[in-house]
Amino acid sequence: MKFKGFPTEGIAFLRELKKHNDREWFTPKLEQYKQLVREPMLELVGSLHAAMLRFAPSYVGEPAKCVYRIYRDTRFSKNKTPYKTSTEALFWHNRLDKNSGGGFYITISPEQVAVGGGLYMAEPAALLAVRQQIAAQTPAFRATFEAKTVRRLMGELQGEQTKRLPKGFPAEHPAADLLRHKNFILFTKLDPDIATTPKLFREIVTRFEAITPFVEFLDKPLLRL
Predict the structure, then answer these.
(1) How far apart are CA 211 and CA 95, in angstroms?
(2) Which has fewest Cβ within 10 Å: 2, 61, 159, 195?
(3) Inter-axis angle of helices 199-219 and 39-55, to 10 degrees?
(4) Which domains does the chain have, with CATH numbers?
(5) Are the beta carbons of 188 and 157 closer than 8 angstroms?
């Protein structure tokens, strides 16, 4: 079944969590969080998986593994609040480890609904393999994110870049602007009000399908490593 939207109480819970981000407030409300936020997110991911069987079957997995925990890692952060005030999920290729390749991403909060896809913080060997493929197939890669539909739905290519071209690539290479990228990201924010409506599912599916060639291009060389 297609996802009908988060309960309004779930979004309200996240809004209250932002005001009371401490264990004293959250611990007695753990079951409420699971019922109002986590379980609907698992349902959304399951519905997305069902849709992705049509256009990205290799990115279909187990919803419980796709949905991020609410607990923040505060070890290296100045922000010591213990909980995330959003619910997030990652969809990655089932032949790659989580966070080792390209994938699809969603986050839901009272402030925003965001959809993204691409390659983030790849290991050096993986990043080199992706850059080499981009250098060899530049027009094909540009087509995955410069298509009118992709630009309309996702905007421009984003991602941190190096100041200089990586070693091994000539300065005059036609993909020089792309080869400086350390991350290759398509990311857009949607109206947060859609989170409680069936439109949420439709908007995510439309964007996931549009950026599938982009994500698959980034993963192709990683599947050979």
Answers:
(1) 19
(2) 2
(3) 60
(4) 8-224 (3.30.930)
(5) no
C-alpha 21/C-alpha 84 separation (Å) is 8
The pLDDT tens digits for 194-209 are 999 999 999 999 999 9
Cα–Cα distance for residue pair 179/126, rounded to 1 Å: 13
pLDDT exceeds 70 at position 118: yes
Of residues 180, 143, 174, 140, the one with CA closest to residue 160: 180
Q: Residue 114 forms beta bridges with which residues?
A: 107, 189
Q: Where are the beta strands (DSSP E) in the chain?
A: 87-92, 103-108, 113-119, 184-190
**Cβ neighbours of residue 212 under 8 Å, at least 6 residues apart?**
55, 56
Q: Choose among 216, 182, 194, 199: nearest CA to 92.
A: 216
What is d(CA 17, CA 39) in angstroms, rounded to the nearest whole number? Answer: 17
Return the bridge partners of 113, or none: 108, 190
Band the pLDDT of 1: cuts 50, 70, 90: low
